[in-house]
Amino acid sequence: MIRTVILAAGLALAPAAVLAHHGWSSYDADKVVRVTAPLTDVAWGNPHATAKVSYQGRTWDVVLAPIARMTARGLTQDMVGPGKPVTLEGYPRSDGSAEMRIERVTVQGKVVELR
Known about the structure:
By secondary structure, the protein is α+β, with helices and mostly antiparallel strands. It has helices at 2-20, 67-72, and strands at residues 33-38, 40-43, 50-55, 58-63, 85-92, 99-107, 110-113.
């Protein structure tokens, strides 16, 4: 009985989890953004680490990669902490909102591919 209730609860919550995760199709892969600036408001967590950066007179939301992928490729939380200068390369959202999906980060002379 308890197993049935847990299974039913999990199935009921699954659509919400899917809707909460954004798809990569909402980013314009034809427009590459390259920003060299310090990051602010870095959140080192899953499903993706996030940060903010000042670019073109606006504060942009930065979508990084999952923690496991970044650390496996040599990018640590200390390297991208608030105030640390980095170069970000990625794609802006297609709808014009100030958000970018990052493909690579260059920090301390090291290029880290995130995708």
